[in-house]
Amino acid sequence: MSTSMQDLLSHGRKQQKQRTRSALIDAAQRLIEEGRSPTVEDAAEAAGISRTTAYRYFRNQGELLTATHPEVVKTSLLPEDAPTGVEERLELVVREITRFVAKHEAQNRTMLRLSLDPSTPRERLVLRQGRAIGWIEDALLPLRSRMSRAALRRLVLAIRSAIGIEAYVWLVDVAGLSSGDALKTMRWSSKMLLLGALSEI
Predict the structure, then answer these.
(1) Around Cβ 125, how many Cβ atoms within 10 Å?
(2) Domain segments of the chain as ranges
(3) What is the pLDDT of residues 103-139, one digit of tens each?
(4) How far is CA 3 from CA 9, 15, 147, 178, in A?
(5) What's the chain's Rg over C-alpha atoms?
(6) CA angle, residues 95, 161, 65, in degrees to nearest 5
(7) CB 91 within 8 A of CB 33
(8) Is residue 64 within 8 Å of residue 28, measured between CB atoms?
């Protein structure tokens, strides 16, 4: 077999592997929209792929969910060369959180609806595990020496309430804003909350 033919076959296999992986991820995302916390077997069945094949791509549910929404496993949304200024840090984090809200709107809406049902087990709420609070706390780290723990906690929760799917749904469905304007409003709100808190120090 010629080298060019081997390269062609190798390229074809890589493309097939990528299609299989994408199919599993897409299936998992659809299942999340339905309010499920899909296992590898669930995604395989939904994608029409054998379980054995699926496990070659994802060893467990954690790996699958991480591939589906890689943002959720991050402990920080700041880059390695993060700015030291609290306003700049918060702006970066809020922009990432609101981008995630809009990008995965359907899944986030489903998780919100399910979270309002007290009978829903928490493990089914894949996208509602309180991660954003940790990300915001990380952004506001420079304020730890300037604010009391209670005041800082109040600020973190206030910002979270202004930039999550709850705020997005109200701004779009009730206030009638476009998705883009809703995101701008959420980002503006977070900035005003921070500036208000800084003025009280």
Answers:
(1) 18
(2) 3-68, 74-199
(3) 889 888 888 887 888 887 776 666 667 789 999 999 9
(4) 10, 18, 66, 54
(5) 21
(6) 65
(7) no
(8) yes
* CATH 2.30.30.60 matches 3-68: no
Say if residues 171 and 187 touch (Cβ distance below 8 Å). Answer: no
Q: How many CB atoms lie within 10 A of CB 192?
A: 12
Q: How confident is the model at residue 12 (pLDDT cuts 50, 70, 90)?
A: low
**pTM to 2 decimal places:** 0.76
Q: Which tokens belong to 154?
A: 């109040």
